[in-house]
């Protein structure tokens, strides 16, 4: 795996979103309505290249740990951005503080600064406290779905997710199936693997959900 994160570059078709990767892991920068940035799922290896790209985009105001397992880079980022507010799902605070020694705010701290067409959702039935970012036509997810290696049109499940991520499979599956009807995506921005863009993405996600029920 590379030792440092790539530069943050715009995500085509998703205004105000920027992506950087290290190996198969992704950090996404989201421009807030203040002009500042939120880093969703910080990835270790924040070197000069990534820092320079962030400096050109805006000030990092929030560091977002979107579940209890995406925590390995938080201390590193907190040192680089000491004025940034640390946020995480409330259910994850105790575990994250135990692991990192850091103190977190709830996700409500960022919701008023998100653009009007961006929202946070917390799928029920999960054990990890995972929170997604929903944009028009796009889903940013943590461990629930991934991008298939070398195939930008196909989503997949992480092998460990059904066992370690899902608590109540029926509740989770039913919620995702309903939400796909409310906000069907054509773009998936996962924390694991490549970006996925496909007209049949909702059908793909539905098929993957059916595999865990």
What low-confidence regions span 5 or more consecutive residues with pLDDT below 50? none
Order of helices and strands: EEEEHEHEHHEEEEEHHEEH
Number of domains: 1
Provide the β-strand percentage band: 15-25%
Q: What number is the mean pLDDT? A: 96
CATH class: Alpha Beta
What is the fold named in CATH at topology level?
Metallo-beta-lactamase, Chain A
- Count of discrete alpha- or pi-helical segments spanning 4 or more residues: 7
Query: Can you list the strand order of the major beta sheet?
Result: 1-2-3-4-5-6
Rg is 16 Å
Helix content: 25-40%
Shape: globular
Provide the CATH superfamily: Ribonuclease Z/Hydroxyacylglutathione hydrolase-like
Structural account:
The chain is 28% helix and 23% strand. With 213 residues, it is α+β, with helices and mostly antiparallel strands. The protein has one domain: Ribonuclease Z/Hydroxyacylglutathione hydrolase-like (Metallo-beta-lactamase, Chain A, 4-Layer Sandwich), CATH 3.60.15.10. A hairpin with a 2-residue loop joins strand 8 and strand 9. The model has no long low-confidence stretch (mean pLDDT 96).
Q: Can you summarize this structure?
A:
The protein is α+β, with helices and mostly antiparallel strands and 213 residues long. The chain contains seven helices and 13 strands.
Write the SSE topology.
Blueprint: E1 9-10, E2 17-22, E3 25-31, E4 37-40, H1 48-57, E5 60-64, H2 74-80, E6 85-87, H3 93-100, H4 108-111, E7 119-121, E8 132-135, E9 138-141, E10 146-147, E11 155-156, H5 161-164, H6 169-182, E12 187-190, E13 196-197, H7 201-212
Parallel strand pairs: 4-5, 5-6, 9-12
Antiparallel strand pairs: 1-2, 2-3, 3-4, 7-8, 8-9, 10-11, 12-13
Helix pairs in contact: 6-7
């Amino acid at each position: 795996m590379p030792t440092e994160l790539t530069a943050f570059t715009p995500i085509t078709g998703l205004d105000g979103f920027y992506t950087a990767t290290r190996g198969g892991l992704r950090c996404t920068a989201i421009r807030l309505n203040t002009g500042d940035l939120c880093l969703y799922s910080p990835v270790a290896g924040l070197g000069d290249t990534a820092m320079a790209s962030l400096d050109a985009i805006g000030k990092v105001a929030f560091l977002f740990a979107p579940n209890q397992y995406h925590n390995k880079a938080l201390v590193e980022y907190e040192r680089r951005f000491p004025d940034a507010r640390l946020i995480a799902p409330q259910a994850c605070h105790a575990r994250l503080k135990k692991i990192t020694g850091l103190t977190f705010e709830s996700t409500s701290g960022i919701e008023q600064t998100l653009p009007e067409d961006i929202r946070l959702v917390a799928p029920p039935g999960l054990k990890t406290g995972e929170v997604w970012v929903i944009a028009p036509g796009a889903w940013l997810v943590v461990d629930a779905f991934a991008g298939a290696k070398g195939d930008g049109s196909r989503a997949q499940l992480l092998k460990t997710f059904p066992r370690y991520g899902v608590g109540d499979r029926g509740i989770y599956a039913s919620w995702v199936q309903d939400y796909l009807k409310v906000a069907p995506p054509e773009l998936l921005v996962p924390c694991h693997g490549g970006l996925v863009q496909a007209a049949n993405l909702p059908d793909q996600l539905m098929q993957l959900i059916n595999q865990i029920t």
